[in-house]
Specification:
The chain is an alpha/beta fold. It contains 9 helices and 8 strands. An 8-stranded parallel beta sheet has the order 4-3-1-2-5-6-7-8, sandwiched between helices. About 10% of the residues have low confidence.
Amino acid sequence: MRDALTTEPQFGGGQFPEEPLLHLRSIRSASCPHRGIGQALAAEALARNARQVYAGTRRPLAHPDARVTPLTLDVTSPEQVQAAAGEIGSLDVLINNAGIALMDDLTDPTAIERHLAVNLFGTYAVTQAFLPALSRSRGAIVNILSLNSLAPLPRIPAYSISNAAAFSLTQSLRALLAGQGVRVHAVLAGPVDTDMLRGVDIPKASPESVARAIFDAVDNGEEDIFPDSASAFIADSWHDGAAKALERQLAQAAHAAS
């Protein structure tokens, strides 16, 4: 494993094969490395011998492993995003995990705006800022989304809308960056036992199992990753389905026209 970066999730009032394709030296994670999926992703990267893990977090972070470098990062702050990008030399994997999920009923447009600011535009901003480093390394982008990218949960419609938009962004980046050798992955997870679902009595996957599944799938070159039992049931039908076929067809047509 080489260098990686991960970003921090934000939570709000609703709570609701032999040779791997990826040799991680440096990972930047736009997720919190001291709880939930962010913590599990950082731990898994270190377990896979990442040389360095850059951890984007809005709060001060002390980590016992010297390979972890905290970066102050609010994905909605252009200044912090650019400053974080300036602190990194090489980068092999960017993990966009920042997000909010608040209950709403679509009566207030600011709920949609708030979700899009983090879940869509935050992901876009961080990706663009770190893209030069990823292009040099011919690395990978991993966007942590959810099954609500494919179908909305009516109790959190603004979150679902932002996830659908972020998935479309992921698919577009995948087609546009393929010529630069940058791979783009979408993680379409089911319920995970994190702060976001604290107190919700439903079956949930552990963050650790999800993190392992994500890295395994990236190593295997899977574009769309279904990392838990709740999402795995859709994997085969998705990979062989009409929507995925259309994505590939449109990407090929765009390449042929360019």
